[in-house]
Specification:
Blueprint lengths: L16 H25 L3 E8 L5 H8 L8 E5 L5 H4 L5 H4 L8 E5 L8 H4 L5 H21 L2 E9 L2 H13 L9 H7 L2 H14 L4 E5 L3 H17 L12
Parallel strand pairs: 1-3, 1-4, 2-3, 4-5
Amino acid sequence: MIDLSKISTKPPAEYSKKKTRNATKKITKEIGELVETMYAEGKHSLLMVVQGMDSSGKDGSTREVFKYCSPTMVSATSFGKPTDEEFDHDFLWRCHKAAPRKGKINVFVRSHYEDILIQRVHNWIGEKRVKMRMDAINAWETLLQEDNNTTVLKFYLHLSHDRQGEKLQERIDDPSKNYKHNPDDWKQREHWDSYQKAYEYAINESVIPWIIAPVDSRTYRNYFIAKHVLKTLQDLNMKRPTLEDS
């Protein structure tokens, strides 16, 4: 069982910012090559789920990991409060239609898990519905992976309470980051412990495992996630088609 309080949010002791940045650049260039191969081969797809507390770096890490990829091959979908139309459907409806087609990658910045996180923390749904939705999530992710050749790769961006406070304050103090400031983020911060418990439930009850990424350091965060994305793509053993294959 995962206990987030026992997992470090910091980089390892031997961490070097310069070496890590250089390694990340090399890895992300390799990712760019493999993403192009995925697109050319057209047999696989990748759904990458990125979840974490406010200011954990969901957008930033996604941008860095796929910086050498064509936007025709990699896209991102951000899930906020459901629209009226989305509320009129089951909670997975808006996610299913955003799942990647073969040959492509889609990143969910927040995701279907929001419906058992924020809704659970604020008691908008009961425990019976939480379990029902968790079962549905597991079934849906398994369907994507086993029936459609879509690899589901899930990252929880593990941020410390202190570091979150610093980053939220940066959005107030730094004019270039003022656009990110949302007073509601501070209100959600008051529910930190409840969110940690909700995340632990989602992580521990998932059929497809999560990767816990330490994100107090932006540089190490990008390296850690990129390293796992690269390994996932390499393991697909993809091959670019040639004229001889026609």
